[in-house]
Every structure is written in C-alpha cells, then in structure tokens.
Amino acid sequence: MRDPAFVSARNNPRKWTRPFGWSRATLSPVNHVIALDVGGTGMKAALVGADGTLLHEARRATGRERGPEAVVETILGFAAELHALGEERYGEPAAAAGVAVPGIVDAERGIAVYAANLGWRDVPLRALLGDRLGGLPVALGHDVRTGGLAEGRIGAGRGADRFLFVPLGTGIAGAIGIADRIEAGAHGYAGEIGHIVVRPGGTDCGCGQRGCLERYASASAVSLAWAEASGDPGADAADCAKAVASGDPAAVRVWQEAVDALADGLVTALTLLDPRTLIIGGGLAEAGETLFTPLRAAVEERVTFQKLPAIVPAALGDTAGCLGAGLLAWDLLADRRPEPTQRPTDPEVSA
Ligand SMILES: [Zn+2]
C-alpha cells in the first residue's frame, strides 16, 4: 500500500517544478485518457498517456455506507474533476475514459449489473459517465479482468499470448488472457476459479456449493485457519507466512493445506486453458517464495501430460485495475479510429 502523502505529493509535480512564466501555451498538448478503478473501500484514478505513462494519480474513499446513488455520484464527480484537470494541465481534454468496477459487469452494454458490496443493480455507468464527460467515449470493465488485462499486457505476463491471472485476496478470482484480451465468457462469469470445487463435501461457500477453492486458499481462508491453529484470534495469513518462514511446524501444516488446494484448482484450470504464464497476485502472493516455491512444486507434482506454465508473482500490485482501465480506454480509441486519422503526423504510419 502506498503512503497517501507520497501519492498526493507526486500528484502535483508541476506545483514544485513549474518555472516562472510557464503557461499552458508553451507546452504541447499531451494526449491522455482517464482511468478509474472503483473498489469496495477506495477508488483509484489516473490520467494515462498514450505510452501507458501515469501522468497523474489520485485516490478517494468509495464511501459505500452513503448508499449506491452517492457512490455513483462520487465516481461521476471524480471523473469530471480529472477531465478538467487534464485539460488545464495537459492542454487538451482526455480522449476517452475507462472504468473498472466490482461484481457482475456487462461490458458490451456498459452496465454494472450487480455488486453486492456497493448495493448496485443495473447501473448504466457507461452512459452516465459519457453524459457527465461531455460525450467522451467510455469503456466499462470488470475489476479483476481489467487488472488481469494490465498484468498480462504490461505487467508480469508481458509478452505471454495465453495467461491466467489469479488474485488470492478475500476471495479468489481469475482473468483468462487470450491473444491480448480477456475472455469474459458468454454471461460475464468466466474465470471464477475460486468456485472450482477442490474438496467435495468440504467447507460451505457463499456461492451455495461446498469445498470451493477460495474456502481453502484465499488470504481470508488462510487467516481463519491460522487464527484457529495458533490460538490467536487476531493472527492472519501474513503472520502464518512469517511463521512458515521461521519453520513453525503448525504453520507449515496450515500453509501446505492451502498450497495443495491451490495447486489442485490451478491444475484443473491449466488442464482446460493451457496458459503460458500463470500470474498469482493478491495478499497471499505477498508471501513471495514462501508461497511460490511450494506452489511450483505442488503443481509440478500433479501435472502428467500438461505443459507447465511459468508461475510468477503479479507485478503491478493494487494499481493493476487502474492501469487496466487506462488500457480499456486506449483500446476504445484504437477500435473507433483508424491509426492514420488518429496520428496524422506519426512518421511510422503509412497508408
Ligand atoms: Zn464457492
């Protein structure tokens, strides 16, 4: 987690570096898009340049306790502020906006269908944002798939044409990367690897099944198991990882159970998908080699005919969603405008 004070200082570089006499007219305009990542507790936003550079970053509380309408209004206001700031600071307005939201997302129709933690049902977010931003093209994406897009294209999976991104957090989700895009499935549910049953008849899951992967290998599941095994109700997954690293046998047992469940789930996924790279993110991946060394061994032990993918930690941390939202926005422009019209002065572009 980044220090908010550090972020806000970085947000205003020109405040400190702008020389006397500097004015907007002396700077050539900077082509950019607006990127927004809406989480259950916080929102991240950025202005992203054409080469993927983060020109400006900001964070704000989601404030979900104020109700779903107020959260939507905060998103619209936050985007409008960034729009104005981009125009003022970079000499031209943003060319598009991308926004990533949790829950069930209909990206085609631009609708946030359902988000339990935000109380949303059928919010036409793309249309609302487009209206607030003066008709700007807007792309809407699912948070994990959008983060996965960034990890696959500019993060840990860079250069992999087939990858699977699996964040291990409160739950376990997944993003299936195929040829530079993320597969959403026919109904927007593809990638829900956390609800693959790895222990039939096992622990009850909120989804209605028993023995789902996320009940054994999410950061929350490991926290619960370690709190019980250690007798310390406040102990969490990070404490368990530390105890594993120091050789505590009880911690090693808890950890290995999670690793085995995770390997079972991942092997099912890689049998179906044959990814080149398996990117593991989320809180549990912060344990580093304490997780990755036994995980690689457990996966290797299980595969027979399947090709082993590279198993790597995620590289972008909690900015993946925001960077991915920026990519969605740029993709929108690439789809809508042919290259030569978009960059008439680019010498690389030929007819
Ligand atoms: Zn489940």
Structural commentary:
This protein is α/β, with parallel strands linked by helices. The chain folds into 2 domains: 164 residues, Nucleotidyltransferase, domain 5 (2-Layer Sandwich), CATH 3.30.420.40; 160 residues, Nucleotidyltransferase, domain 5 (2-Layer Sandwich), CATH 3.30.420. The chain is built from 12 helices and 13 strands. The strands form 3 sheets. A 5-stranded mixed beta sheet has the order 3-2-1-4-8, sandwiched between helices. The chain has a 5-stranded mixed beta sheet with strand order 11-10-9-12-13, with helices on one face. A 3-stranded antiparallel beta sheet has the order 5-6-7, covered by helices on one side. It is globular, with a radius of gyration of 22 Å. The N and C termini lie far apart (46 Å). The structure holds zinc ion. Zinc ion (ZN) binds next to loops.
Domain count, please report it: 2
Q: What is the succession of H and E elements? A: HHEEEHEEEEHEHEEEHHHHEHEHH
Structural class: alpha/beta
Helix content: 25-40%
Mean pLDDT: 89
Task: Please state the CA-atom Rg, rounded to the nearest Å.
Answer: 22 Å
Q: CATH superfamily of the largest domain, called what?
A: ATPase, nucleotide binding domain
What overall geometry do the principal axes of the alpha carbons give? globular
What is the CATH topology descriptor of the largest domain?
Nucleotidyltransferase, domain 5
Question: Which blocks of ≥5 consecutive residues have pLDDT under 50?
Answer: 1-26, 337-351
Bound molecules: zinc ion
